[in-house]
Amino acid sequence: MSSLTLEAPKPETSLKATVVTQLNARATILGDTLNAYGMHERQIRIAQEGFAEGQICGVTIYGLNARGQVEDEAALWFDAIKRETSLSLDLSNGRSLTEAVSRQLARHIVFSAETMKRKNLNIQFAYWFPGNINHEAARARYGLVASSGYSYAPGHARRRLFQVTPGLDTGVHFAHYQARRLR
């Protein structure tokens, strides 16, 4: 009788974690979001630069109807980074950094952008500035103009459809709102 010795197979690891600073991850999420809504690459770079320098802390994306009234609205904002940390993300299989932070976040950004595009809305952007900076100086530095204060149609109000905060970085928030007729 012969003895057969089997060796356990050696596991092959295909997961290769990529370490990214929280600041870089958030700047990339901002860029991915603005790109989904059709913002030009140069404008995206300006927004990311402003975010990295602490001059921009969020953005509101307005979907305006033909009368210039808000029909859909999305917002992406970031809590202040209290202590710089790094995120270990799986970027394999062509996964974007936003997907690696949260697939749910990525899906909701795409859903929101596609909703506005499908409705053929005029998409406008308004940046959020932290309270501790000179807003006029920040606008001048990045070539931005003050928002014209978009509003909902008379008899309509903003209703939140969803809000997402990813578990890997709870300082990132994304929400989508739609105009609803008041009763």
CATH class: Alpha Beta
Radius of gyration computed on alpha carbons: 21 Å
Number of domains: 1
CATH architecture: 2-Layer Sandwich
What's the CATH topology label?
Cell Cycle, Spindle Assembly Checkpoint Protein, Chain A
* SSE order: EHHEEEHHEHEE
For the secondary structure, the number of strands is: 7
- What class do helices, strands and sheet pairing give? alpha+beta
Explain what this protein looks like in three dimensions.
By secondary structure, the protein is an alpha+beta fold. It has a single domain (17-181), classed as Cell Cycle, Spindle Assembly Checkpoint Protein, Chain A. The protein is built from 5 helices and 7 strands. It has helices at 22-36, 41-52, 97-101, 103-118, 135-142, and strands at residues 17-21, 58-64, 70-78, 86-90, 122-128, 156-164, 172-181. The protein has a 5-stranded antiparallel beta sheet, with helices on one face. Helix 1 runs antiparallel to helix 2 (41-52).
Feature tags:
alpha+beta; Cell Cycle, Spindle Assembly Checkpoint Protein, Chain A; 5-stranded antiparallel beta sheet; 5 helices
Topology of this structure?
Layout: E1 17-21, H1 22-36, H2 41-52, E2 58-64, E3 70-78, E4 86-90, H3 97-101, H4 103-118, E5 122-128, H5 135-142, E6 156-164, E7 172-181
Antiparallel strand pairs: 1-4, 2-3, 2-5, 3-7, 6-7
